[in-house]
Amino acid sequence: MSGKRKRIRSICVFCASSRQCDPRYHGAAAELGAVLGGKGYTIIYGGGRVGSMGHLADGALAAGGLVVGYIPYFMIDLEWQHLGLSDLVVVKDMADRKDQMIRASDAVVALPGGSGTLEELMEAFTRKRLGQYLGPIVIVNTDGFFDPLIQQLNACVDERFMDPRHREMWQVVDQPGDVVRALRSASPWTPEARRFAAV
Fold first, then answer.
1. What confidence tens digit (pLDDT) does each residue in 51-76 have?
2. Alpha carbon 179 to its chain's center
3. Any domain includes 1
4. CATH number of the domain encompassing residue 40
């Protein structure tokens, strides 16, 4: 799709708060934080202090990066917030958090996670399909975690629930170190996508 690519300054990262997942996922989150923070990108994320969320933020902060968390009031009551962020925005609820995170970002990156991460990623796909979000979407497929999802997305295209051009909405990388290259090489996307949103 033709169009001028917007300069990327802030990157929304969707990731998990699980403390019980395999440590390699936490390692990937910390590496991604260090890579993005070290290159001067502002990281937008869910504001948590544990799991991949905490490792992402700590990795970025240690590299001198800016990290802005978005967290709902009830999570503040539960004391789930990271206390060392560059900024912490307290929002009304989960839907408001997701909306504000996407709006505040020039790109979206998804790390492995559970239902919340998958729901946020699907929201980004849906907005991009409708031309309401135009930035790159990069999936970090640590150890093949996202293989079933990628297979399902391709099935949506193959079975004509989505247009073949929708395959350009996302890119997949295996390593956090490949994310910046993927962001820079992503196909431009414009509001013209609405013309083929409905198949």
1. 999 999 999 999 999 999 999 999 99
2. 11
3. no
4. 3.40.50.450
